[in-house]
Amino acid sequence: MTQAKYGDKFSQPTGGTVQIREHIRSISYLKSHAAQISEEVAATGAPFIITRNGEAAMVIESPQQYREKEELIALLKLLALGEKDRKADHGISVENSRAQLAQRRQQR
Predict the structure, then answer these.
(1) What CATH number has the domain spanning 9-61?
(2) Which of 46, 55, 60, 61 has the fewest CB atoms within 10 Å around its CB?
């Protein structure tokens, strides 16, 4: 995984991009402008990177962004497990799966 660098861009939910450097703030700025940061995250959808001693310490993002990211991670885990099973021959063919489904439908 690559690390974000000064000048990199974030994708926006609306399809545009925002420069990362526009959304990097110190922890002291966060302490005195928390409401403003919260409003901007809600309005633009762009996360803020909060730094401590010049190093990234946390990311502030909207609850919707967080949920979407967690859902994506869960889906990626499911895909990885499925791929692991496929490689270990722990699955069934499409034909067998369709036959099993057809059989279950007939049993109803």
Answers:
(1) 3.40.1620
(2) 55
Q: Where are the domains of the chain?
A: 9-61, 66-107
Q: Are 49 and 23 in contact (CB under 8 A)?
A: yes
22-40 residue pLDDT tens: 789 999 999 999 999 999 9
Instruction: Give pLDDT tens digits for 42-101.
Output: 999 899 999 999 999 999 999 999 999 999 999 999 999 989 988 998 888 889 999 999
Closest CA relative to residue 7, chosen from 23, 25, 19: 19
